[in-house]
Amino acid sequence: MGPHRLSLRAAVAVAAVILLCSAAFVSAQGGDGRDAPAVPFTQLLSREASSSARLYSPRSPFNRAIDGDPTVDRDSDAMIAGLVEEVDEGGATLTWRRFTVPLLVAGRNTPRRRVRLTAPWRARDAILRVPLPRNAMPDPASDGHLAVIDPATRCEYDFWRLRRRGARWSASWGNAIGVDGSGVYPRGLSARGSGFALLAGLVMPGELERGRIDHALLLSYPRTRSRGPVRPATESDGRTPGRGAIPEGARLQLDPSLDLDVLGLTRYERTIARALQVYGAYVGDTGGRGVSLYALHSMSTPQNPYRSTLPDETYPPLAGIPFGRMQVLGLGPQRRRSVQIARNRCARFAR
User: What's residue 47's pLDDT?
Assistant: First the structure.
């Protein structure tokens, strides 16, 4: 489900979600209860946005800074060597225009819909009462991701390969999770390979404007290890055997002793590199060639929210960040277990 291949406790309350995500969230709603006009998402983050307002609980693995003296995994060198090979062969990029996640914020009048689920391995046949306007637009790339937040219920709805035919919606898979939790589906069956919620680890436009990211990032690359995830991931689509492959759920950190000021980084690269030193990145999906970090999809606002912070490229390069100075922090055991629906207040399914 990563890029280049055919495969969220708001800080305190809903107000914190809204503060995080914008100078303004414009809800996808119509005053008379019908479908809204074409405002796919609005999320205009600014430097004035609170740096302490983050998606998910403060105890979320994505919101915890790395300890000052973390344990490095014994196989870190081998795993990073493989990572660097991928960077050398396919580059390291920030994904913001294709193969990433658009965010739609539902309003009180947004229609509630049944979304049929079609993947052969699906655990349920449909997810119910999804707040979804007719004009909702998933990522046009083959993964077809879309995340929907309902501020009234503090629920996040995640979809993989979402599509509409006429008035009917379907997706290969969809699930829902509360935005006041960990940002991890506890028994898997997420819309990502790892069990992470779709918005977990994404760089937000206002974070690049502000020059500060206060959470861990999400990383994908092709060589994710087979035989299951490590915590905090709860599932894995990894297929590469051997100790040199990195399992999904692994946390990577850029050497915190590295002086970023001498590397000649662009402003966006420096912001990302500092986050990699303080919070790191979790391997959260099997991607295509190269190494990818993820930003919120530009479709999330009516105008390009990155026009002052990123180059006008589909995959802005992260060439200045020395991925050879990354380290894999101590891994727990890989766990292969059956994924299953974990009951929560947000997800309602039909068999």
Answer: 34
Asked if residues 334 and 227 have their Cβ atoms less than 8 Å apart, the reply is yes
CA distance 2 to 160: 11
By residue count, the chain amounts to 351
Report CA-CA distances (Å) from 158 to 8, 58, 176, 198.
10, 21, 6, 6
| Structure token digits, residue 76 | 């870190």
Confidence band, pLDDT 50/70/90 cuts, at residue 50: very low
> Span 284-297, mean pLDDT?
97
Please state, in angstroms and rounded to a whole number, the distance separating the CA atoms of residues 130 and 256: 42
Check: CB of residue 213 under 8 Å from CB of residue 207: yes
* Closest residue by Cα to residue 281 from 296, 289, 291, 290: 291
- Rounded Cα distance, 113 and 136, in Å: 12
Give the other-Cβ count within 10 Å of 320's Cβ.
Answer: 16
Over 60: is that where the pLDDT of 195 sits? yes
Residue type, 153: T
CA dist., res. 4 & res. 6, Å (int):
7
Question: Can you say how many angstroms the Cα of residue 51 is from the centroid of all Cα atoms in its chain?
Answer: 18
